[in-house]
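Lab notebook: predicted structure, single chain.

Context: the supervisor wants predicted structures on file for every construct in the current expression panel, including those that have not yet been purified. This is the next one on the list. No modifications to the sequence; it matches the entry in the shared construct table.
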Amino acid sequence: MEKNKNQQKSNTLLRYEREKRGWSQNKLGELIGADPTMISRWERGSRNPERIYQEKLCNIFNKDAEELGLLESHRKTVSYIDQEVYPIVQVEEDVSLAPTRFLNMGPEELTKRYINEKEHFLELKINGIEWTIPEVVIFDNSRLHLPPTAITVQVDTLHPEYTIPPKIAGRAQDILEEIEHYFYDSTTIRLNEMQFNDHRITLTVSKAHYLQFLCNHIGVGTLVFTLDNYLVIPVRSRENIATWQQRIGPSIAGATSFDDDMWSFKAGPVASWIREGREELGLENSDFIDENDIFFGITRDLLRGGKPELYFATQLNITKARLEQKFRKARDKWENIELQWLEFTNPLIPPTNEEERATFLQEFIYLLHKYQGLHSRPTQIGFTFWLKYMLSQQDVKEGIG
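Prediction complete. Output recorded below exactly as produced.
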């Protein structure tokens, strides 16, 4: 349930005292033994500190509870214009840009901002539809067709756990303050290095935390097909997610989890999207078949600081009807308004003749037109990779980059 922002009043007194000392929310959390996300909630007014933390805050700031705005009935609003505030980090940005504006940049804005990398953007031009997707491709598997088992994930022994640099911690927290109610903090897998040797990809990673933001954590997106060849098309929620509301998303999408995914039967990103499939669609491990898993490629998400995204596809061993039943019991089904479906003749086996190619293209183009204007960027990327993968063994005459 989305919080009613009109009922909560920010605790600017507490935030003022923290920033006056040049402390980040992480730093204050360390000093009083509280998670930084708790500090954020107290300052936004969405929660009030428990008595034990009120006492610690009063001691560390040498103020009473009323002076720190910890008593809701006495909470005051401090104007940052009238007070001498010492920001954690000075950022020379247009003050008219709200922090969350960076999470809503359109393709033209992103292209302008990252013009030097445009030659590496994903592109699709087919049947009157043209996409130039401001997402940098760092590994394209459409021609090599390496299996997901070619991906090896290893923990960085020199830097096993990532800590966000203090000089950007405050700015990252500012961005999250407006969207944190969509997330809970959890561990995630941070990519430190990628190596490609002898048809294998090695990802060297560290443990990080999702709400540290901008920490290069790995995301995953997967197109899922049922046993009877239906593509699973989720329509994203309007209230419960931070980005791409009411757009169609990849069948499975989400962040990696270091604690959950690095020690499971499939280490790393593959385990991540299987876990997300359990949570978002209600699937079980037995619904996936290893030999049906397809690896599309790796990109850098320019919308979120260049964080890496891995894209996959898979075909389940259950039918559309069975998946509909499972989705009703999914733990995180609230992320989507509904599931929609589109049937394909042979969705994941590249065509070997002109008839098969024509059939696939007809079905694919129908998909693009049916949801024109509703594609989220991750969906555009997944669909473009899918088309490149399917037509990689033939000449692509219509300009798929």
